[in-house]
Write a structure and sequence with these properties.
DeoR family transcriptional regulator; 10 helices; seven-stranded parallel β-sheet; DNA binding; Rossmann fold; DNA-binding; transcription; transcription regulation; Arc Repressor Mutant, subunit A; alpha/beta; 40% helix
Length: 246
């Protein structure tokens, strides 16, 4: 995704719906160029076009989870993509930043396998040129992910070498925590596999505490933004965690 595509997405996110003519004026490019840009973004499942207008695809998901810090999450997703290599078997958990990572993977050149518990991510990757494995389990509608004993059984019987996980909170005293018990159980099952584990989270999550414990000892790398609180960063590093600041 180039810089102009990011600007177009920001404009559509802010306006909810915007005309092609106005996009052309605001970005100072021709209507032909804007239409080509929108075609690319539509193919990547970012937007949909309707009679001279463009709007964000799937408003419920995008408005509630992706609109917040969209540009920042996009940067985190792009950086995460750079850590994936040909031949990797990659587990991608749910969440908005991981969903953006999945979209970036549509442009990945090379053979990989993507494994997920998130139905939204699996749908995004339905036309991907690589294998996608969607685990079974109890569908949690709000998170668009599967959870429960069947999901953990699938995790235990499948192998992967890299994981990208979302978290709800981190504090020096309690480590990584989650707001949902069943999702935390899935994350802990993934962490027990011994893969190279990456937590992707914007800095707003650091300093928050939620009820359910995530096995922090098995997390060795965090991808976040440069606004992370210095005390939080120091705490992570004191635990031997590598901090990738974007």
């Amino acid at each position: 995704m180039n810089k102009r595509h990011q600007i177009i997405l920001e404009l559509i996110n802010n306006r909810k719906k915007i005309s092609v003519n106005e996009l052309s004026e605001l970005t100072k490019v021709s209507l032909v160029t804007i239409r080509n840009d929108l075609s690319i973004l539509e193919q990547q499942n970012y937007v949909k076009r309707t009679h001279g207008f463009a709007e964000i695809l799937d408003r419920d998901f995008m408005s509630e989870r992706m609109d917040v810090n969209f540009s920042l999450k996009q940067k985190l997703a792009k950086y995460s993509l750079s850590l994936i290599n040909e031949g990797d078997s990659v587990f991608i958990e749910g969440g908005s930043t991981n969903s953006l990572l999945a979209r970036e993977l549509l442009n990945f050149k090379g053979e990989i396998v993507v494994i997920t518990v998130c139905t939204y991510i699996a749908t995004l990757l339905r036309d991907a040129p690589f294998d996608v494995i969607l685990f079974g389990g109890l569908l949690q509608a709000k998170s668009e992910s599967v959870i429960g004993p069947l999901t953990r059984t699938c995790i235990n019987q499948t192998h992967f070498n890299k994981t990208f996980l979302g978290i709800d909170g981190y504090s020096p005293d309690f480590g990584f925590t989650g707001r949902d018990m069943m999702r935390a159980e899935v994350i802990n099952a993934v962490l027990n596999k011994g893969a190279e584990n990456f937590v992707i989270s914007d800095s707003s999550k650091f300093g928050l505490v939620y009820p359910y414990t995530i096995d922090s000892d098995k997390i060795k790398q965090v991808i976040t933004d440069s606004d992370i609180n210095s005390n939080m960063e120091k705490s992570l590093k004191n635990k031997g965690i590598i901090v990738h600041k974007i």
